[in-house]
Amino acid sequence: MNDIEMNALGAQGMAALARGGNAEALRCFNAIVEAGRADGTVWVALALARQAFGDPEGTAHALDAALKLEPQNVRALLMKGDLMAAAGDRRAAVSFYGAALDLVPDTAGLPPEAISEMDRVRGARDRLNEVLHADLTRGLLSRGYDPANASPRFNESLDLLAGRKRRYIQEPRSYFFPGLPTIQVYPRESFPWLDAIEAATADILAELQALMADGPDIFAPYIEAEVNRPATQADLLDDDTWTACYLWRDGAPVPEIAARCPRTMAALEHAPLERIAGRSPFALFSKLTPGAVIAPHTGFHNSRLVVHLPLIAPKGCWFRVGNETLTWETGKAFVFDDTIEHEAANESAETRIVLIFNIWRPELTEAEQGLVASLMEGIAGL
Quick one: pLDDT at residue 57? Predict the structure, then answer.
């Protein structure tokens, strides 16, 4: 069979399949297979014809042949998932559905029918995952598992396994220090020095309010254009919905602000502030106006962590890092890794203001902190 004959036979088979002529389609595709000229598309078409005849074994054989030739054939993966689900093999179905969905992470721009099909498969996978998770949990309970008292990390692993949560990783935009744990929000007890900072909340707020009362406006856009750098978070560039008033900037106190906030500056000294000449400490009052949204983004390097101390925190303001969504509460600090995707919004009718500062990662030794500082100082001098 030459190429012209094979193409004609394939076109004839596809046309027959489209009008429901399954017997003719089966004959055409089998002829191509017998000639040794079948590619993944032909095997999938043959699988569709065999499926129409109610032949699950023949359908599976054709799909396996397609996937042997083309392991990333999305149509074959989806059909194999459906076949496994119909046979009651939920784990296999989830695996095939997942493989297909991974190959099409974004359906934007696809034809409506393709988008609908991927939505169907995503829903089928999620439902199967829930059933598998329920079965697995029942088995664990019978072996003594107690969710309320079990390791939070283990509980999270079950949510990840069930697809209820997504696995986030550190994605620094600039510098990556290897070997550090991926922790979205750190346990509060890891930082006993936060007690002293939280205890100073009323004093810090009073200094902030005095600054704001005296005017002129002490806040400027958080994201500002730099002539020698490309814009980051361009949607908020020079935007006055997310603004900052710096206490420390580029490794030095901002004189006109720091001098008027002595108790705030003293409170910050309780923290293991990241110290890099010309770069940090970095501390500011961050203001988010009503309706403001900070889109998902990641920070520049993972050798530091970020601390939030809420000062004015109306209901309706939230912050998400990875899988954890928090609401700011006045005087209750938290520490997170900003190289994990995070976002924020103020859905209230009032302004939200948080004190933000950076600290060294506690996993870094003093020697490593010094090396990172030297590296960053060297980069700044290039």
Answer: 93
